[in-house]
Amino acid sequence: MRKNYNSFLNIFVLLFYSASFTQTNNKWISPVDFPIKLSGTFGEFRNNHFHAGLDIKTQGKEGVKIRSSNSGWVNRIRVSLNGYGKALYVDHLDGTTSVYGHLKKFSPKIESYLKKKQYENETYVIQLFPKVNELKIEKGEVIGYSGNTGGSYGPHLHFEIRKEKGQVPINPMKFSFLIKDSKRPQIQNFYLYTNLGSKLEKKEFKLVRKNDSIYTTSGIISAGNFYVGLRLFDRQDLTYNKNGIYSVKVRSNGVEKFFYKMDRMTFDDSKYINLLIDYKELASKRKRIQLFTLHPEQKLSFIKDNSLKGDINIDKDKSYQILIEINDYNQNTSYIEAYIKGTVKKEDHIQTTYNLIDPVKEHLFEFEDQKVFFPKKSFFSNVNVKIEKKGDTLIVGENIYPLRKSYEVYHKIPKGDSIGISQSFLSFINKNGDATFFSSTIKDGYWYGKSNILGKYIVSRDSVSPEIKKINFKDQQWLSNYKYLKLNISDDFSGIKKIRGEINGRWILLEYEPKNKSLIYDFSDQNFKKPLHKLEILAEDQAGNKTVFKTEFYRKPK
């Protein structure tokens, strides 16, 4: 009995201290030392994905101290040329993970751990998973410095909080960070949409601002089944960035038709984001119109009631009040009151002059030297796509439909000059009409690649090698007081594929930032025993053209 009592007591004590720790540890702190200003909100609509965190402005500069918002341990360190760039993932005892992206560098203890692994593996791009408690982190500890690495278009911190199990992003606003916001969401345009075959048809109703919170409109529309489309944004205090909204509710004659709220999401949700926008408007005019409708193929974690599909059935000679409520996280609310009357139903004229692609089936289109293959479920619904060959150009439709799954493009490799062929590759023609490198491999005598955008393809050639230039030093220069070497690397067409740097025959860590075309070597990485040093950098582009850059410099031994 005594033994059982002691066991019970031990368990009670453990639970007590665990609960106490969790309660005190649940008070998250800001990752920055100044008032939070946002350039991006949770769940915001981005190109092909929902934004999984908050973008926190860093006063327009790099090198700002970033602190851990809670105690824990480093779960993952990632260095990438795109995405979050240099990113840190910290696990916490309450079952959450905080993420800090686009960093310039990490704190000294994390940087030391990282560089050791980078040198062991002779790679800059790397992903590491330290053991639990190998790199302990205290709440408020400086874990890194803000930057602009990866897929970032200006200095800022990308900050996330995830549920550790399943890595499910949670809206960080739920953790009581102080973010001043007294501004209501702004509505730019109001539309009613209907599906006409594989195309969307819309009608705009001009909005009139009744007061600070209410927009009104009225009009007539032919009878049919419709759903709402809006151009809208939200702003917080002290910033002019156009950010995303938190929740939207649509009612027709008092009946709820659609509702979503961005408290949490999954990364799988982003597969369906292009069904929630007018994809053609975004692709052709860069105009983002959100659609408040639920496609049969959509499975979205932030929509709790899948029976609310957004359908508004409008009958002839009947009147409807459509009321839309738009909120930001601080419950600043804007409303749209739309008074719509139905008229005679318009006849649908659906043209199917192109290739009808049914997503239930596979589709193969073959030409003399090219093939295009659409696997099952390439699209979300039936679409009409014009697939043809015009001269040297393979045309795979127009970028007006979102894809659910990538399709395959094949182009037969011609016979002839082996050097010329080795420098050739498939190119995709972008919306500006420029040929861009299309990633492909060789398969059964074809260049073969996968694409998730409809458009045009041609064969291109790149015979020009990458170029490397010195930025902050010269040949034969004494660099004893320098902290780093900086170089510029560029390629005129296909893009950089591979970089390797050596000093005196030993691999060195060159930090490559593609958007700045910069290469940086940190002298603190190693001590030099002799004054004369030979720097050699090998660079290769996607077409296989290579450059070998060589120079010498002097540095006082330490």
Key traits:
Glucose Permease (Domain IIA), globular, Chondroitinase Ac, Chain A, domain 3, about 550 residues, mainly beta, eleven-stranded antiparallel β-sheet, six-stranded mixed β-sheet
How far is the first residue's CA from the last residue's CA?
Answer: 68 Å
Give the averaged pLDDT, no decimals.
93
**Overall number of structural domains:** 4
Which class best fits the helix and strand makeup?
A: mainly beta
Describe the structure.
With 558 residues, the chain is mainly beta. It folds into 4 domains: 24-175, Glucose Permease (Domain IIA) (Distorted Sandwich), CATH 2.70.70; 186-343, no CATH class; 355-461, Chondroitinase Ac, Chain A, domain 3 (Sandwich); 467-554, Immunoglobulin-like (Sandwich), CATH 2.60.40.1220. Strands 1, 4, 5, 6, 7, 8, 9, 10, 11, 12 and 13 form an 11-stranded antiparallel β-sheet that branches. Strands 16-17-24-23-19-20 form a 6-stranded mixed β-sheet, with no helix packed on it. The longest helix has 24 residues, at 2-25. It starts with a helix and ends with a strand. Mean pLDDT is 93; it is low at 1-25.
